Amino acid sequence: MRKILVAAMFSAAFSLCRAQDIKLLQPDTQGGKTLMKAFWDRKSDREYSEKTLTDKDLSNLVWAATGINRKDSGKRTNPTAMNLQEIMLYVFNDKAVYLYDAKKHTLVKKADGDHRNLIAGRQDFASKAPVSLLMVVDMSKYMDDDEHARLMGAVDAGIVSQNINLYCAANNLCTVPRGTMDQNGIRKLLGLTELQIPLINNPVGYPK
Prior knowledge:
Structural class: alpha+beta
Largest sheet: 7 strands, antiparallel
Low-confidence stretches: 3-18
Distance between the termini: 58 Å
Mean pLDDT: 91
Helix content: 25-40%
Oligomer: single chain
Number of domains: 1
Order of helices and strands: HEHHEEEEEHEHEHE
Strand content: 15-25%
Strand order of the largest sheet: 1-6-5-4-7-9-8
Number of strands: 9
CATH topology: NADH Oxidase
Radius of gyration: 18 Å
Number of helices: 6
Shape: globular
CATH superfamily: NADH Oxidase
């Protein structure tokens, strides 16, 4: 009887933990400005409204960054070297930190609390954005951790950032690509390995 009770308690605790994950809305197939208009409107913004991103905008944003757009092959909106898909996308908000699971189109909770200050680093304006997206390059996906592999990882992270920039420009959101952040603090918080490198981030919000 005791074993059954313990198992039930463990199952309930696990379910509660998983319930804190966020199942995102299905991404839109239409909407936003044309691609050319988004290029005209793309700019770096460092001021943001405190308004929380809608579920729709958050769901579309992370999918645009690195979501699956070909279900038969699992390939992404962002090309990567040898299709290694080595870019890990983390979402920071005022409640928690999440890792984007593209296969399930779900935000998986990784840490409680508001840790946007780690993304902001020495630039306080970034901590005021309701959401910050962090691109981490997982170099363990490469056979060799050499200079060329690291350059390719940086290129791939830049592509994800550009996807974010263009989604924001097309949907009246504000963002700016940044390299500034507290890398050591982020590594400790997320339990990253030496081969998982926080490389670039995009604070995102509505116009102030």
